[in-house]
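Hey L., structure's done. Input below.
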Amino acid sequence: MRAGWAIDVSEPSKTPAGEAARVGPDSFLTLHYRLSLADGGGDVISTFGGKPATFQLGHGQLAEPLERLLHGLADGAHAVFDVAPGQAWGERNPELVQRLSRAVFDANADPDASYEPGDVIDFPRPDGGRFAGVLKAIDDNGVLVDFNHPLAGQPVRFEVRILGVL
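Output:
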């Protein structure tokens, strides 16, 4: 058991050729994964029953705390991690819920789009990148946008089945 995490891991037996490959910090992986709300609220995302995901660890395709949970798992392993609130995407930060004037919003929003509370909206960053926020409220004077990750402060369950490690 890893400190701070509830874990259930089943690993394959050794192959005749020796030890199964294990996940390391820069591994290329093919895996099925499921991220769900720990309180039984349902899946946020799941590749089980569909096409597996393939990516390289350490390149921002998966939250870094979730990547760390994969380190050391063997090719073929199945693991379930219960991740405490705030451990994967941090705690909710009330300072990231911001009121923007309607002029600022209109200057940065798609002029052809119709927005409603709950919509995810992309905004430009000063460095040319993009960041997203969830629209919480909109009126003639402005908008209220939550820039916290939607899973910040939420307990989640992370289930993986490692299909290949390179």
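The helical segments are 64-70, 102-108. Residues 64-70 form the longest helix (7 residues).

-- N.
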